[in-house]
């Protein structure tokens, strides 16, 4: 359960979600480019990347003086599977999106 809470904490910030979205569209991104494209300072990018690395959803590697970031897709898939198991979101008892009924905004009728 601890790993899931670390994962959700990593995803709980809009800036970190923006970082993940950018990395999902680009293979290996230098930290400096990430900061420029997302308009975040170097210290702020480093802070958010540290949290994402601890959760395991971002990988970094040093190439000379540059640090390259990439999305850890296998880790994201493992988290997704774990969440599905934890909340019972897989198997024959799970309704598909087509089968779900949207909740009505109409007040419930009261019968006396």
User: What percentage of the residues does DSSP assign to strands (E)?
Assistant: 5-15%
Secondary-structure element sequence? Answer: HHEHHEEH
Q: Can you list the strand order of the major beta sheet? A: 1-3-2
CATH class: Mainly Alpha
Task: Enumerate the spans where pLDDT stays under 50 for 5 or more consecutive residues.
Answer: none
Major sheet description? 3 strands, antiparallel
Give the CATH topology.
Answer: Arc Repressor Mutant, subunit A
Global structural class: alpha+beta
What is the gyration radius calculated from CA atoms?
19 Å
DSSP helix count? Answer: 5
Which of globular, elongated, flat, extended, rod-shaped describes the shape? elongated
Classified in CATH, the superfamily is Winged helix-like DNA-binding domain superfamily/Winged helix DNA-binding domain
| Overall residue-averaged pLDDT value | 84
Domains counted in the coordinates: how many? Answer: 1
Number of strands: 3
Task: Assign a percent range to the helix content.
Answer: 40-55%
CATH architecture verdict: Orthogonal Bundle
- What is the straight-line distance between the termini? 46 Å
